[in-house]
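protien #1 (seq + structre)
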Amino acid sequence: MKSVDGLEKKVVERPRYVRQKPIVEDFYFSKQRNKKPVNIIPGLLYILFFLIVSFGTVFSLDRVQAYKNDLEMNSRVIQDEIEQGLKGINENDYQTAAGRFKSADKKLTALKVQLQQTGQYIPYFFYLPQSDSKLNESTKIIKIVSTMTRSVSLLSNGLEALSSGNGPKTTDQIQLISDMTQKLTQVALNDKGRLEICDSELSDADKMLGASGGGYYSDLKKQLKTSLPEIRSKVKEAVNIYDLIPKIFAHDDTKNYLILFQNNSELRPAGGFLGSFAVAGFQDSALKQLDFETNIYKIDKPYMAKNPIFTPAEYLYVTPSLALRDSNYDQDFKPAAQKVMWFYSQETGKNSAGVIALDTTLITNLLKLIGPIEMPDYGLIVTGDNFLQEIEYQVEIGYFKDKSNWPENAPKKILSEMMPKIIQKTFSGLNNKEKRAQIVALINDSLFGKHLLFYADETSLQNYLEDQNYAGRISSFGGDYLLLSNSNIGGKKSSLNVKEAMSQKISLDTDGHVSKTVDIKRSHQGTYNWPDGINKTFNKLIVPEGSRIINYRILSGDDFPYSDWNNRDKGGIATSLEEGKTVFSFWLNTKPGETSELQINYQLPPELIFPDNYQLLIQKQPGTVGSNQNIEISSPRKKIYIKSEEYKNPINFVLDQDTILKADFR
């Protein structure tokens, strides 16, 4: 038998305004240097010139004062436009953001024209006794606002590219995606360099404001000082993304990505059973193909017959040999995705550049936003409420009731016909201000909730995905760590009907050593009716390397190892090492209408101590919808503070994304 683990994986300069010295000053020093006889005519000319300039200056003081007043007022208006634009970005309202930025740009241009009309004498103010420091500050502010406005105007180009403008011009989902990706790529190529210049200028502006302190326009400077870091952060992020976009969408290249549809009603470590997938092919920034696989078993079975591959022990109950559909068994999404890509290559002879994984929770929530999808050939109207039920019925039963479908044997055909309609309706939703904000918020929540995951062969792109926590990686967090992963193996489609709760009692001694009691409770709220049934799960409690089991108890339910029917009475817990972590593995099975519960006592490694504070990272398993968490910390210290507030026993929250808990001892 081959082992998949042993297989080799493929793995301007901008022109600056230079203040010129008065001509009389140059003339005077030039005469001194040449040491020629004194000529009183230049002196008279000097006096005459000075009187003319002074007279012109006094004559235009009212105009200058009016300019300064307008500058102050308009600078505040421009700042308000920028703040409203930033608010639009934060609320995912790209249209409003772009409009605010453009309005700020227009007002700034008008202000510059006013400066040119009024300021032919203004440079001399810097050399005259009545030079006004307010004018100096005004000049600095207008430069800063100019840089900020150019920055956010450039950012709005990318935001506008995500919207389909006045509405989709085609119902072809490939063309819809191509229009967006090509526009995004062009924006990235055009604006990356200009944003880098803005980043440098924003850094200079931040230093300038930091050194200027109070003085005139102190309130305005405080507002600018507050906005600058936020704008600069978005500029730097855009620079990073713009560097990657041509690589993602294969500018001057060709790339194929696997899109995995993971059914999290049948949980697996990386998110859910891999029953269906699609292939998206990009060339020169345009989507050229979007092909849906309607029956993964068609490519799995021929390969398995000729290439039996070692199956992890827990999977022996459902399959004698490993194939594409079960290849996402690693808890860390990177090795899981690499195995998926390897099996896809072996079974089809085709390569891919990365993996995008989404689950049924994301699709269900999206349908609730964009509205129902009509499927007249099936006599169905699919909604967010009936999606799982109707699709599972059509795939497993309804399709095969029609004997004419047997030769085709494509039960996932309904998905391939429905997804283009979802894409089309999603693009239509992007043109509605309210819907657009909701859709973007859903995608954001799905990324952090691990209902949407990415892996890329491109190193720089993968590094970015990992930095943003979009890649489903097991963290190398230096403090305490916990991740509970469960795999529904032979438990039908029961995972989403099981409500999970976990409590941790964390005890620290005087030296900062930690012992813990973790209690896991699962309540099955489903039935025995298909596609539901007994929830049979293989679990991994992933903790810091070197942790040691003290005690393990089943309080209700059972821990029969369903992978081996001859050893049903030999439950228990096993210890192993994976991804630089210690793993406690066990079964926990739950019958409909009942609750299962187990308790594990263990100690963290002796070298991992917390003398002054305690930190715990709890990572969420991809595909799960959020478990209730209850955490209680005890310590011989006088008081425990969390987020600067005195600790209240216990802490309760829903684990809907990776969460870090920090406690200080005083």
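ok now protien #2
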Amino acid sequence: MNKLLPSGLDDFGPVAKTGYYVDKTRFISRLLRHIEGTTTLITRPRRFGKSLMISMLDYYFSQSKKDQSSLFDGLAISKDELAKEEMNAYPVIRLTFKDVKFSSWEKAFAYIKSDLVNLACRFPELADSPKLSTYQQEQYEQLCSANASEVSFLKSLYLLSELLHLHYGKKVIILIDEYDTPISKAYSAGYYDEAIEFFRAFYGEALKGNEHLHFALVTGVMQIAQESLFSGLNNPDIDSVSDGAYPDCFGFTKEETEKLLHYYGLGDRIDEVWDFYGGYCVGGYDLASPWSILKYTERDGRLACYWSSTGENEIIGRMVAKLNQDGASDFAGLVGEKKASCILRPSLSYRSLGENADDLFSYLLSAGYLTLEGTVTPQGRCMVKVPNKEASTAFETEIAGLFAPRKVESNWTGDLKNAMKIGDCQIISSILSSYVLQSLNSFAYGDWKSYQYLLLGMMVTLFPDELVKSEVNAGKGRLDILVYNESEQIGLVVEVKVSSTKLSTYNIKRLAQSALNQVLRQNYAKDLFERGAKRVLAFGVGAIEDKAEVAEAMLP
């Protein structure tokens, strides 16, 4: 019987026991050559194996997992004698921020606080440790309480490292996965300052000059500028898609992919698979997203677009909206040619995501829509391209449509803004339907996401100072687009439905009404009213190819 496919699993234990594991343990050997106290930040696109790597390191180094050391038998790391001395030798603090995606800082902090309480409770041996003073034991007990102060949680990572070091007599390893997810969400949801203030202190306490730290490994998609988050941290080791010491440790190489496909009886498909999913260039290696390869194999060799990074698109939409004329021209060239020249900006600050295309291309490179072609000059000049057919599909449906708002005539923008201000549903309805029709003359038809991102790009462009969100958990479901003008206390919600078959004009109107009914039935306006909206304009968009209709309602 073949081993199970670990699609969607990021726990090394069950993957190594019963699943097909692509051996990346050589990463440990390279990591151990670093100086004690070093913090390493590794950035890769989503679905590139970062979370499984964090889990693997936890199993290898953690004292609490000594009984599972046999998981590494026969793997590459078992041949490294130096590494064997470090195996299961340290207290390990591991946490992830992958699920911190909330509409307000209050909700985000409540979730973070709950996670930190659970983290502290994993070490009950600290409660009555004879190595700790009574005061230190009390600090630990306080941290295990949800009633602890915000300052206690700011210092929690440092405090745990101190207490564990004292208790075990061994310095601590800190593993943090998806560090940038809450920052990205905070930026798009409008509570960026609160999030940065918390995390700057949180990381600063634990990672800057921490005498209890053996080493720390942090993973994410984007390298956030030092001045924004890791302020004062001494020379973190950065490993990115454009530069680093671990190019082949994340993602699948062609050799690894071919071996996997042969194991599952798909070895003769390697060329079509690599054409569709490969092409990511990192440090001279040609790589593919593990998620896509595993999904392809799981679906018995069905080529499809399994990867997407839609969580980034609100931010990308805002960047497109801010492009100056030269930047817009550069982006238009990328949309058409699928490659472009740029100055690479590996470290970006959310506060100053600029008007130039270099910021946008660098962001798309980090997110996985683009990859490097060739080398980067000493001045940072490089070529970027869409890496493969899967990424091209994602780019066309999720990103290219965001450029369409620049085709909207200026009188439309004024009419729409005025209509939004006074709450005129009929004018907005007319503009929305006309806009979709006009845009579809220039862009290929697609599924509902194509239309959604067309409209999202329009909203981000026309309302750059307002709260604009997509894929929002609202009411009893998930809403396509939300806009909120706080000063006017007016909100706007849009739900999109697209038919896969040709419909009459009458039936397209019914499709639009069905989308509107979903807004009303699922109470999608609830979040806006909770924010203080006095009126919410609700729209349902029904579309098929080059035809569109809009149904509207004013709430309450």
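Residues 405-410, 440-446 have pLDDT under 50 and may be disordered.
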